[in-house]
Amino acid sequence: MVKNGKHGLGRGLDALMGDPVPESMAPEPEQGEDRVVQVRITDIDPNRDQPRRHFDEAGLRELSQSIQAVGVIQPVILRRVGDRYQLIAGERRFRAARMAGLDSLPAVVRDWDQVKRLEVALIENLQRDDLNPVEEAQGIKQLMEQCGYTQEAAAQRLGRSRPALANLLRILTLHEKVQDMVREGKLSAGHARALAGIPDLEQQLRLANLCAAQGWSVRQLEKICQQTLKGAPQRQPKVEKPHELKELERMARDAFGTRASLEGDMDKGKLVLSYYSAEDLQRIWDVLECLGQNS
């Protein structure tokens, strides 16, 4: 995963450490310039379209302690909404700063359209190390759907190969309970990719439970999935029998008093009579003998 280096802080640390700027006085950045201002935390609203839903509490506490010690080093990105601000990027810093009891945050105010805001928020989250594979795949899918990206375009924006991105998206085809196991860390992304090759969702779940219980490696699971696919019977499409053949089956059942099944079509096939005891066989014999005598 491509990681961006730390960006410059615009006008420097003096801009970060100054007094908060009232929302009515916060200057809009000039074209091509990142102006860092202090914005009161109480004037900032989280983004309801934030693609990240889970924030690790332990990680937030650790970041909060760091902020208490040295402050917020990297500014968040905001947009103006009336007389308030909405987060575009930096919700972990926002939450940790609020947890640390800060009154204000260093911020860059941007006037971006909805697609650009969503793209930045998604890409920022996707470049984090602590995303689980399901969150990562969901974020990429959201980026593609809401920003209108193909897999190739999304891969370029994220600095990844298209095959790697396609493999990650396959995780979203897994059984929901298997996805939960990946979220909880019981299965790795490699395990998830191996299971995604199993088309039967219930079979996926059985193998996932066995994998977690037995502690299989990704390689072991891949081999078991391959064996499972080789041993799976090929399902033939069900062909509706003509009415005449259905009627013939019924007549055979009535005549012989046992199960009768007809396989084939109007040109060729076979009629199978089943018997389950000596009495069944004797009855079939008697019927056939009677038919022979009357022929």
Notable characteristics:
295 residues, alpha/beta, 13 helices, 7 strands
Q: What does this entry look like structurally?
A:
The structure is a single chain. This protein is α/β, with parallel strands linked by helices and 295 residues long. It is built from 13 helices and 7 strands. It has a 5-stranded mixed sheet. A two-stranded antiparallel sheet has the order 6-7. Strand 3 and strand 4 form a beta hairpin. The longest helix is centred in the last third of the chain and has 17 residues, at 278-294. It is elongated. The model is unreliable at 1-33 (pLDDT under 50).
Count of DSSP-assigned helices = 13
Principal-axes shape call: elongated
Termini separation comes to 82 Å
Low-confidence region ranges: 1-33
Largest β-sheet summary: 5 strands, mixed
Work out the helicity level. 40-55%
What proportion strand? Answer: 5-15%
Number of strands: 7
**Overall pLDDT, averaged?**
77
| H/E topology pattern | HEEHEEHEHHHHHHHHHEEH
Strand order of the largest sheet: 1-5-3-4-2
Radius of gyration over all CA atoms, rounded: 33 Å
Instruction: Give the class from helix and strand content and strand pairing.
Output: alpha/beta
